[in-house]
Write a structure and sequence with these properties.
By secondary structure, this protein is an all-beta fold. About 0% of the residues lie in helices and about 35% in strands. It has 2 domains: about 400 residues, YVTN repeat-like/Quinoprotein amine dehydrogenase (Methylamine Dehydrogenase, Chain H), CATH 2.130.10.10; about 130 residues, YVTN repeat-like/Quinoprotein amine dehydrogenase (Methylamine Dehydrogenase, Chain H), CATH 2.130.10. The protein contains 2 helices and 57 strands.
Length: about 750
């Protein structure tokens, strides 16, 4: 996603090398619900709330032998197949459930040119010690169904280098043979179409517990090439094999100062030339130098064909690009990322810059094998009317950033697509560009509100793209990101229960960290003032039922907690609340404007205020503690009716404002809870939760005050980890909104 990556920052510490790789077991199918629960599941229809992309599209792959067939991968949001007739992306990995959350990051994908229905995915979000091992999914029906093999190694689909690749390849000499490049465990091979995997013992580069390992695999005719991301400048970074057994360093490859990380490669079968992009870091962040080289595979001759050298000069001192340089000199630093060959036109190649903040990233296109290049940004016209958030609060959108995914349609030379940190752009004429993103949603969702009145049924607080007002669920919000000020990642969102036109929000921003709205979230004004700590540690916020009191808490991203601050003048002045438990999430009583609550996760105690947040006193204690994943919720329209979700200890309820709690017997685990419109004839709001009544973590609804539950999602709609928050519609019975960590906002309705 966009530059902050606060919601998904990859831990960079290395991991120990995995155990032996031979004889890996095959696991077919997916997790399934118990028969009793499945039988009780009501019919629900699940759809995405449309925003449009919002995350890092790390790879795009057209099938070389089927017109209109393409696949895309993302760093935390799974994989997709392009439906040419519907002109939208179809999600392929929504079946991955709670226990498989680490598999929503796609490290690599591959297709079989000889068997168009076959597609393969290498899954694994993090390669750290605390993350699970990777897996390979294989399909014979273009991803409609999958067989799965669990690996004994870890993959890193959301770590540095995630835009490199592809690291997965079907051998052009034998469709049963697949190759998989790993970060820390060398090169693997399967001879049974991905069912089992073994280490390639003859691969010359030494695997380590850190670094990039194999960055790319590509076929040039019957020869396979592998990029190596851990070269020290004297060792090789590109290897090849012509027989699938013996590997060697490619002679004459860039070395010394030019020995950078090979990011991507593409083969022109007409000219028999291999193009390789390089950068001095794996990206997508941190690159400041790069180049493009090509290898004539028959003669073995290398040539530097870099369009523009970082810093504004070109190789050999001659201009290869038509681009009018801006922000030149040492400030214009960048690497090279994507590369794609036009299958219909010999010598026609497109490459992308990456991490170019001074002059903004671009695509360069050559029609003469790299002798001259043209910047497509120079004549490009961007139309983001379908996804207005892409301006990020500016007057116009950037052509791109984090461009490492790049592809040219093998059946249409003017159809080019490229991924960014927030979308996928496409063109059909090399001039006009627009998001080609329908169906692909990758937002990491933090907060959700479903207002009881007004045009919008949903307001969302999101990672990296702030707050959005959803006047329609089927179109990207026309106002884009909430402005005045613009936030990166939202940290708080609250609505006055008795005055729903009044909404407040907090988050990470460059021009203020808090704002309020008097029209239900359509327009905003910044707080007149804010506590000094808000800039470095903006946390959640609460507003009492009549909108007269704000309570803002502060938690630094490193975990440091600070005292809460209170305002009674709409954010013009703030005072510290010493008795509030540091770092706790404040909750306003939905009926009594004098009451606030906070759950202290460190001590397992409930604190309550009856004087409008001036002071807090300790109520119930001895509740579960020591884990940050707790959520305190209040039933709408009722004073003191509190529900406490605890990750591994079930669900607790208080009907006396937190003085006492009792455990809800029907629930084994509860992660997040929400209330919606009551069922016909019911005297209590419908209760929804992500939790477990028995063994399966899923989405449940109760129409009888949590005495009994029915599961409302199914095995095909699980979306990995969905424990952040949910919201239920107070106006429409049965509708619930699910916050995912990479698949945007899902909403379900009874059929």
């Amino acid at each position: 996603m966009y530059a902050s990556q606060l919601s998904r920052r990859a831990v960079l510490a290395g991991t120990a090398a995995a155990a032996a790789l031979t004889g890996l077991p095959e696991i077919e199918g997916r997790a399934h619900a118990a028969e009793a629960e499945s039988a009780a599941t009501p019919a629900y229809r699940w759809r995405n709330v449309v925003i449009g992309g919002t995350g890092f599209v790390s790879g795009v792959l057209f099938h070389p032998s089927v017109r209109g067939l393409a696949y895309a991968r993302t760093d935390i949001g799974g994989a997709y197949r392009w439906d040419e007739r519907a002109a939208r992306w179809i999600p392929l990995t929504d079946h991955l459930g709670w226990d498989d959350w680490n598999l929503l990051g796609v490290e690599a994908m591959a297709v079989d040119p000889a068997h168009p229905n076959r597609v393969y995915l290498a899954l694994g979000t993090y390669a750290q010690s605390w993350a699970g091992n990777g897996a390979v999914l294989r399909s014979e029906d273009r991803g409609a169904s999958w067989a799965r093999t669990d690996l004994t190694v870890k993959l890193g689909g959301n770590e540095d280098g995630r835009g490199a690749g592809e690291r997965l390849l079907v051998d052009p000499r034998d469709s049963d043979t697949l190759w998989l490049g790993t970060r820390h465990d060398g090169l693997l091979r399967s001879t049974d179409r991905g069912a089992t995997w073994a280490a390639v013992t003859g691969f010359p580069a030494a695997a380590s517990a850190s670094g990039q390992g194999v960055t790319l695999l590509v076929a040039a005719g019957r020869t396979l090439y592998a990029g190596w991301g851990d070269s020290d400048g004297t060792s090789a970074n590109l290897y090849r094999t012509s027989d699938g057994t013996t590997w060697e360093a490619v002679p004459g490859q860039p070395s010394g100062a030019n020995a950078k990380v090979p990011i991507r490669a593409a083969y022109d079968r007409h000219t028999r030339e291999l193009y390789v992009t390089y950068a001095n870091a794996p990206g997508p962040n941190g690159q400041s130098d790069g180049s493009v080289h090509k290898l004539a595979t028959l003669s073995g001759k290398w040539r530097d064909v870099t369009p523009v050298k970082p810093g504004g000069t070109t190789a050999g001192g001659t201009s290869r690009s038509s681009e009018a340089e801006s922000g030149g000199g040492s400030a214009d630093t960048f690497g090279y990322g994507g590369v794609a060959v036009d299958a219909r036109r010999p010598g026609t190649v497109v490459v992308s810059t990456n991490n170019r903040w001074a002059a903004v990233d671009t695509l360069y296109r050559t029609t003469d094998g790299g002798r001259t290049w043209k910047s497509l940004k120079d004549s490009g016209v961007l139309d983001v009317s379908e996804t207005p958030f892409l301006t990020f609060g500016a007057d116009k959108p950037k052509f791109g950033w984090w461009i490492q995914a790049l592809a040219v349609d093998p059946y249409d030379s003017k159809h080019i697509v490229y991924g960014t940190g927030a979308t996928l752009y496409g063109t059909r004429d090399l001039k006009h560009w627009a998001p080609q993103i329908r169906g692909l949603e990758e937002t990491s969702v933090r907060q959700l509100i479903s207002p009881p009145t007004g045009r919008a049924h949903l307001i969302s607080g999101l990672g990296d793209i702030g707050v959005m007002y959803h006047e329609r669920l089927t179109a990207s919000p026309s106002r884009g990101m909430a402005a005045n000020p613009v936030f990166g990642t939202a940290t708080g969102l609250a609505q006055a229960a008795a005055e729903p036109s009044y909404v407040v929000r907090t988050g990470w921003g460059d021009h203020g960290n808090g704002a309020w709205s008097n029209d239900g979230g359509k327009s905003w004004a910044p707080f007149e003032a804010q506590p000094a700590i808000a800039k470095d540690a903006p946390g959640p916020i609460a507003v009492n039922t009549d909108g007269s009191v704000l309570l803002w808490t502060f938690v630094h991203w490193d975990g440091t907690k600070y005292p809460a601050q209170r305002s009674i003048d709409n954010g013009a002045t703030w005072t510290e609340v010493a008795s509030f438990p540091k770092g706790a999430t404040p909750l306003a009583d939905p009926a009594d404007p004098k009451r606030f609550y906070a759950y202290d996760t460190d001590t397992g105690a409930l604190f309550a205020s009856t004087d409008g947040g001036l002071t807090f006193t300790k109520g119930a204690s001895g509740l579960p503690s020591g884990d940050s994943q707790f959520q305190l919720t209040a039933a709408p329209g009722r004073s003191g009716d509190l529900w406490l979700s605890t990750k591994g200890n079930g669900l607790y309820r208080s009907t006396d404002g937190g003085a006492n709690f009792s455990k809800v017997a029907s629930c084994r685990a509860s992660h997040t809870l929400a209330f919606g419109k009551a069922a016909d004839g019911a005297d209590y709001p419908a209760v929804y939760q992500v939790g477990a009544t028995d063994e399966i973590t899923a989405v449940y609804r109760s129409d009888d005050g949590a005495k009994t539950w029915v599961r409302i999602n199914d095995d095909q709609h699980q979306w990995g980890w969905i424990g952040a928050t949910i919201a239920a519609d107070p106006r429409l019975y049965g509708r619930v909104y699910i916050a995912t960590n990479g698949r945007g906002i899902q909403y379900g309705e009874p059929v």
